[in-house]
Amino acid sequence: MNLKTYVSLVYVETLHDFAREVSPDRPVRLLLSHQTQGQSPLFTRVYTLTLAGSNAYHELVILADSVRIDLDPQGQQPWTAAGESIADQVATWRALVREHLEERGYTVWPAMYTLPKDYTVLRGTFECTRWRKTGETWSVEAAMPEAEAKICPTA
């Protein structure tokens, strides 16, 4: 049985591009995942926020962005205050994107479509959010629609 229901993958760079491709009458999937990379003593954790939905041509449209933090030598905890603040904010990041989508009429479901084994995340930006650094810590907030997209932090 072939479970593939989409014709091809379309990667977009911004949430605005995603909205041009995927109509609000189609449910979308939003997933926050993380992966620990490296080896002692240089571990990092990459949090990836992925949005996917199908367009009118049965193509799977994907927008993904990520933030990266350094971990302690055991690969368990954030190594810096900046990294800890980012880790503490990623759930808020997902919630802000979800709220933005729902305000525009999208039905947002958790989980993700099955992607090919050779799928590589191509980084875009969720311009409805902005990461702000204050001293040594980061916070995420809703951005005004006309605000310029900000690069996500790395700590």
User: By helix and strand content, what is the structural category?
Assistant: alpha/beta
Overall morphology: globular
Number of strands: 7
Q: What is the number of independent domains?
A: 1
Structure summarized in a few sentences:
Helices cover 19% and strands 34% of the residues. The protein is an alpha/beta fold and 155 residues long. The longest helix has 23 residues.
Task: List its salient traits.
about 160 residues; alpha/beta; five-stranded mixed β-sheet; two-stranded antiparallel sheet; about 35% strand; globular
Walk me through what this model shows:
By secondary structure, this protein is of the alpha/beta class. The protein has one domain. Helices cover 19% and strands 34% of the residues. Strands 1-4-3-2-5 form a 5-stranded mixed β-sheet, with helices on one face. A hairpin with a 2-residue loop joins strand 2 and strand 3. The longest helix is centred in the middle third of the chain and has 23 residues.
